[in-house]
Give the backbone structure.
Amino acid sequence: MNRTNANSISEQMVIGVTMGDAAGIGPEVVVKTLADPEVRRAAKFIVFGMNEQLCYAADRAEIEPFWGRHQHEKIGREYPYKVVVADYDEYSVPPWLKEPSRVAGEASIKFCTDAIAAAREGIIDAIVTAPISKASWKMADAPWPGHTELFAQKCKAPRKAMMFVAGPLKVALATIHLGLFEVRNKFTIGCVFEPIDLLNDALKDYFGIENPHIGVAALNPHAGERGQFGDEEERIIAPAILLAQEQGIDCTGPIPADALFVKAVRGEFDAVVAMYHDQGMIPVKLMDFEHAVNVTIGIPVVRTSPAHGTAFDIAGRNLANPSSMKAAVMAAIQMAKTRRSLALAGATPNGRTANGLAREEPDDAA
C-alpha cells in the first residue's frame, strides 16, 4: 500500500467504500450510489472491490463506468479521479453465482482489512461497508462473525457498540445478536453502561452535539413496575445509569420503551440506548427503513453501512434500492467532517482530558 501523501489533508474528504459480497447486491448499490453526481460532489472515493463485478453491475443498470482503476497494492490519497477502484483482480466470482461462497468471503474480508489499514494510515477519512455474507465469511474460515467484530479487533478497540441512525432517531444497542431468552443471562451493568458511554462520545465527536441528552430504555413492560414485572431495572439498568451520570453523562432512565421512543422522535432526547436488538431496530426501521444507517461506535475510525443485507435473491437483476447505501455514504462524510472540524478546533475527542488521559472506567459490578 502506497503511503505517499498518506497524511496530507485534501480539501475534500476521501471515503473508502468496501464492495461487500461480490455475489450479493453490494456491487450494484455501490455503483448506483456513486453514480449520483450529488454524492460525487460531496467527497472523493476509493472503492475496495473487484472492477469486473462493478462493471457487470453498471452494465445491468445501464450506467457508464465513471471511475478510474488502480491495483489495490498501490493506493494513495491523491488521485486525479473522483472515484477510483482499488481492484482485487486476483479474485474471480462468476456473475451467475448468487449465494454464499468461500471466494466471495475471502475477497470481502480482504476489502475490509485493507480499508481499515488505509483509514489508520490517513489515506481515507471514513469507511462505508456494503453488505457481506456471514455465511461466506464462515466458509472462508473467518474468526469474526461480521463487520463489527473485525473492525474492533483490527482497530485494537476493547469496546464497541452498534448504533443506528434513522431520520431524527439515533439508537445504540446494549445487547445485539442474542436470543431473547438469552438476554437475561448476558445482561450486566457493564453491558448497559458501555453503550451509554460510547454513544455519548459518538454524539459529540461525530454529530457535534456538545452536551448530549440520552434516554435509556427499560427492559421490562412499564419499567418493571417496581419489580412486579422483573427486577432488571432496579438491579442493573439504574446502577448503570448512575455510573454514567457520575462520569458526567447526561442520561435519564430507565424509561418504558414504548414511551421513550415517542419522546426521542419528538426531540426530547438526542439518542436512545435500547436493551435488546428488536427493541431498538423496530422503531429505527419504522422511522425510515430505506435510509437507515448502521454506525460502529467505540472504534477509532468512522465506519457506516446500510441497514440491509446481501439480498442474494435479487442480486444481478438491477432491482436493488441504493437509498440506504447512499445514506450511509452521506452520513460517513458528515461524521468525518465533524470529527475533523473538532480536531482542527483543538477539541479533545472521546471525553479525554487535555493531557490525553482516558476517562476512568467503572468496573462491571454485575
Notes: The chain is about 40% helix and 15% strand. The CA atoms of residues 152 and 230 lie 33 Å apart.
